[in-house]
Amino acid sequence: MISPLAYVDSRAKIGKNVTIHPFAYIDKNVEIGDDCEIMPYASLMSGTRMGKGNRVFQGAVIAAEPQDFNYKGEDTIALIGDNNVIRENVVINRATTPEGKTKIGNGNFIHEGVHISHDTKIGNHSVFGYGSKLSGNCIVEDYVIFGGNILMSQGCRVGAWSMIQTGCRFRNDIPPYIVAAKEPTTYYGVNAVVMQHEKICDEKVIKHISHAYRIIYQGNTSIYDALLMIKDQVPMSKEIEHIIAFVEASKLGIIK
Length: 256
Description:
Layout: E1 7-8, E2 13-14, E3 19-20, E4 25-26, E5 31-32, E6 37-38, E7 43-44, E8 48-50, E9 55-56, E10 61-64, E11 78-80, E12 85-86, E13 91-93, E14 102-104, E15 109-110, E16 115-116, E17 121-122, E18 127-128, E19 133-134, E20 139-140, E21 145-146, E22 151-152, E23 157-158, E24 163-164, E25 169-170, E26 178-181, E27 186-190, H1 192-198, H2 203-218, H3 223-233, H4 238-249
């Protein structure tokens, strides 16, 4: 299942039933789990740790050196989970320091031309549209949808089940369960259609989420007071608790 026309370093660890096509490049200090497929001209560089069932398409580069002036040349890691699809010309940088980690979870679909920078951490089952760029030290939770050509600035966070429309650029956190749109990127409503389709919560909880965001975005009060009002006025659920915790933890502030 490994083409003789591929380069596979003798020190790389390859799992069972792995297909490596001609002209792929597998560096030293690489681990590939079972049932992966590495297409022609894909490069898995030193520091790749890849789980099971991944497909890596032509021209993708996994665990590229971080584009960070603090990088000193140490051996660092990019950890890829299971069952991800990594399309053509995607670049994923490994961590800047041995203590750090670039991490991609399970079941993500990463479209052509996406760049995921050093020390960024992505959860599970998200979709990243064509040409989107995620800067270093970002966090993306589970079930997020990025449209195409999105620019996510250094250290930003995106909450679970959020959708970001094509062309957005943002320097603040995007809280969970919302749609973000326009330029500058703003709150555009609750991601109700997707949540109802996926049946992650009932209609009553979606109404409570909408109520919480009305308080935050239309309440004409500070974020601190808005969170107090949510705690007082909105019935608690794991979704409301997540909104409160996400906003409280924000260092960059949330989008307007």
